[in-house]
Design goal:
5-stranded mixed sheet; 3-stranded antiparallel sheet
Length: about 170
Amino acid sequence: MADAAAIEPRVSESLERLNIDYEVLPCDPAFADTAQFCEKYGYPPANSGNTIIVASRKEPRQVAACLVTASTRLDVNRTLRKLMGVRRLSFASAEETEALTGMAIGGVTMFGLPDELPKYVDADVMNLTYVILGSGVRSSKVKIAPADLAKLPGLQVVSGLAMEAS
């Protein structure tokens, strides 16, 4: 296993509990946002995951975590809306994301999230040789085999969750 001290404790506990091999990739917190991270450190956006928190606009409030690659965009208006059974969705604000996950934007990951939070991953992510995700903090990322995402309880792999970025 990697240097678990360099990532958020709940994230390292989740990775260890699920027996997931991972590599910690240190990064300057100023470059933690995916596009800047890829550019600075030379990783392809197609292998870099964005964990995005979305929420319904009306009560009862529904929230979900979605994972797509940085080379695509989340299909909020069609696929996700239908999947969640709501009429209107929006991206959670940075403040709402941090309150829900305990993680800052640029560090949000699928690991260490509340168990009851629905988790969706675009099917194309599962075909990659590796994926880089947030580590719960802005000073590092984790690199894993996408197949290990399937170990997350309640994770749902969804075809068409992402579409080509325009």
